[in-house]
């Protein structure tokens, strides 16, 4: 065993440094579900800047220093307050904001979001089949993004009463509003559970279809849309 360690010490050191880099500086996050349609697709792999918000002790959630603040519209990764599962959603409301939803329409600080004319699309849901989808641009709180609605899905939470976001917490929603496990179900996300900001798509493949690479998505910037 000792001889093996001596013979492979360079490789072992590389693995240790690589692990520290991924847990403290930058990481990548595969997209496993449709919750961020139409902006992120299953099979996308996104680059995550772990230094966007906090410097943490490697391999822990211990914060050493605050480096930046999440902004409305940021796509972020975080640990679910329910079960610590890693999720990727969009920041919709910041500490101090009052946010509500009425029939899928966001209202932030008393200002209803504006929406473009919807474009027709199709959403394939496992064990359900193909459903009608509507894709439109949502403008609210100084940011805008493309979102998707599924009119035929009746079980999603399309309404919630006004809620003022407390200090140190954030309200997250998926862009695929009627097919996303987000703050409407898991609650607000504390700052210490944030992991990083998703910056761009590194690579992409059609994992729900023919597994062919989607080269047009390679390197696609995300940003706060």
UniProtKB/TrEMBL annotation:
Query: EC number(s)?
Result: 3.4.21.89
Record-linked CDD domains: S26_SPase_I
One GO cellular-component annotation of the UniProt record comes to: membrane
Which enzyme type, at the first EC level?
hydrolase
| Superkingdom to which the source organism belongs | Bacteria
* Keyword check for Hydrolase: yes
- Domain Peptidase S26 stretches: 11-200
Q: Which GO terms describe its molecular function?
A: serine-type endopeptidase activity; signal peptidase activity
Q: Which Pfam families does the protein's record reference?
A: Peptidase_S26
Q: Which GO terms describe its biological process?
A: signal peptide processing; thylakoid membrane organization
Q: Provide the alphabetized UniProt keywords.
A: Hydrolase, Protease
Q: How does it sit in the membrane?
A: Single-pass type II membrane protein
According to its UniProt record, where is this protein located?
A: Membrane
Question: Reaction catalysed?
Answer: Cleavage of hydrophobic, N-terminal signal or leader sequences from secreted and periplasmic proteins
Which residue positions are annotated as catalytic?
A: 35, 89
Please give the family membership noted in the entry.
Belongs to the peptidase S26 family.
Q: What is this protein called?
A: Signal peptidase I
């Amino acid at each position: 065993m000792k001889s093996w360690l001596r013979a492979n010490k360079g490789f072992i050191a590389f693995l240790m440094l690589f692990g520290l880099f991924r847990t403290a500086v930058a990481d990548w996050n595969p997209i496993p579900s449709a919750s961020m349609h139409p902006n992120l697709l299953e099979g996308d792999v996104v680059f995550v800047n772990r230094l966007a918000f906090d410097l943490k002790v490697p391999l822990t959630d211990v914060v050493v220093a605050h480096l930046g603040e999440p902004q409305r519209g940021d796509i972020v990764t975080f640990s679910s307050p329910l079960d610590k599962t890693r999720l990727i959603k969009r920041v919709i409301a910041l500490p101090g904001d009052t946010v509500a939803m009425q029939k899928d329409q966001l209202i932030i600080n008393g200002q209803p979001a504006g929406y473009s004319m919807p474009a027709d699309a199709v959403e394939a849901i496992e064990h359900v089949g193909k459903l009608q989808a509507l894709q439109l641009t949502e403008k609210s709180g100084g940011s805008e993004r493309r979102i998707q609605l599924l009119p035929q899905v009746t079980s999603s939470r399309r309404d919630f009463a006004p809620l003022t976001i407390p200090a140190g917490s954030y309200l997250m929603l998926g862009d695929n509003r009627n097919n996303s496990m987000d703050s409407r179900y898991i609650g607000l996300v504390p700052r210490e559970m944030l992991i990083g900001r998703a910056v761009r798509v590194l690579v992409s493949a059609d994992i729900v279809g023919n597994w062919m690479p989607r080269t047009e998505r390679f390197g696609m910037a995300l940003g706060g849309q």
